[in-house]
Amino acid sequence: MMTGEQYRASLRDGRATYFEGRLIDDVTAHPMLGQTVDSAAAGYDRFYDPTPGAVGAFMMVPRSAEELREQVELHETVDLLTHVTYASIMTLLTAADRIQDAMPEHAARIRTWVKQAQQDDVRITQCITDAKGDRSRRPGQQDDPDAYVRIVERRDDGVVIRGAKLHISAASMGHELMTIPTKGMKPGEEQYAIGCMVPVNAPGVKIINTTYAPRHEDKRDFPFSGTHHTPEGFVIFDDVFVPSERVFLDGQTEFAAVFAHSLGLWERLGGLAGMASGFDRLVGFAQLIAESNGLEKVSHIKEKISEMIINATLVRASLEAAIAHCHITSEGEAFPNELYTNAGKYHGAANYSLMVRHLHDIAGGSVLTAPSMADIDNVETGHLVRKYMGTMQSVDGLYRTRLFHAIRDYTADAFGGWHAVTQIQAGGGLYAQRIVSRAHYDIEKAKAEALKSARMEEFLQPSLPS
After folding, report:
1. CA-to-CA distance for 126 and 258, rounded, in angstroms?
2. Any domain includes 364
3. Domain containing residue 364: CATH number
4. How far apart are CA 30 and CA 212, in angstroms?
């Protein structure tokens, strides 16, 4: 296993990473991106075990509902790069389980790679969303054939790929890029059915970074994003060679969707877990700011908070159901229940904007206009800010101002915007969760129950022989 310092050193490997138009020679030393490196390095130190052959606790594969719950709870406390590494490993193992019968050699190759990755203590990021070009056309129908990542050359010892993957969290801070199809492929689209692992520093890989990190010197006004933020990478594969042992899908169109759906399961579980804690946080802010404003007993305020509580509780219940009804594979691995994971993620994503709307309505305009902490420090204005930002003897102006800054940063500034979009898009948009929920819902059982309740048993379809 690596220490935090060893992790930092491992990033000085010649990778081509860009930020705001410039090539970054050393991402660890960059004043903004380096903060994300520091968070990841702290994660390395947290899980470091000098025992030969040790595997980080966050990488352990769950083998029961209880172990799955332990991993979910653990990953609520880790940095994003550590979390996506775990989700990547579980994605690969899920895909291996699903292709085992039809592609045993590829499944074995995946498991071999995962074991080595655990031993090497690497960090993995997820490259799934393609540039896509004209969304109304299939990959092979695009004006530019590179709109989806594709194989442009097959060699005896591997393949060469070209294309781009978008929205890749922490791409510049990891070691490996798990590159898989964004959707199912059809016969004739074999060149787009590519699943592989690509080192971040492989020749031809270029990563362009964006970030919601605040550009302000005083981070006190940004209690969430001021110290912990993760850049999004625009990952370009400019004719990148991938050795055969790193190729997990090579033209088998019928299994392209398997990899995409496997990632969707673990990304949605992570999203659901994040919503469970995040929705509780929104409820907490709503109650705190209502009390600070002296409005906690007003009926419409209580109604809004009650609705927020119900949404938070339903999301938490979905997470618990997804864990409790987990599926144990033939390899003994515990995978979350598909129906509860997708239905819960959908409900949370669909209602996130309502949660934020209620919070903003309860809080008021000072979410955006509260004076800065520097204004409170100022000897001429500070005491006046505290006086007029206070609401009663028990609510100091400093306390209330800090609450407003937290609400703004979390829901109404650059990080808040990132949060609002990722609630919907992470793990696939709302439509994807509807499709999977419907596919895993027992609609025939529901029909049978309806017919029985209507005393129309004669219309029941006979059960097929098992």
Report:
1. 15
2. yes
3. 1.20.140.10
4. 15
pLDDT digits (tens, 9 = 90+) for 307-349: 999 999 999 999 999 999 999 998 899 999 999 999 999 999 9
**pLDDT band for position 461 (cuts 50, 70, 90):** confident
pLDDT at 427: 83
Torsion angle defined by CA atoms of residues 434, 440, 445 and 450, in that order, rounded to the nearest 10 degrees? -10
Scan for tokens 């971040």, then name that residue: 200
- For the stretch 240-272, pLDDT in tens is 999 999 999 999 999 999 999 999 999 999 999
Q: Indicate the pTM of the whole model.
A: 0.91
Considering the domain boundaries, does residue 286 fall inside one? Answer: yes
150: closest CA among 180, 185, 194, 183?
Answer: 194
Query: Which residues are within 8 A (CB) of 25 and not within 5 positions of it... i.e. 6 or more apart?
Result: none
Q: What is the tally of structural domains in the chain?
A: 1
If you write DSSP's letter for every residue of 423-465 in order, what string do you get? HHHTTS-HHHHHHHHHHHS-HHHHHHHHHHHTT-GGGPPPPPP
Provide the domain limits for residue 276: 258-444
Integer Cα distance of 318 and 276 in angstroms: 9
To the nearest 10 degrees (0 to 180), the angle between helices 80-99 and 256-293 is 150
Give 21-24's long-range contacts (Cβ < 8 A, gap of 24+): 24/172
Tokens of 302: 């209580």
Strands of the sheet containing 247-250, edge to edge, are: 124-127, 176-179, 194-199, 247-250
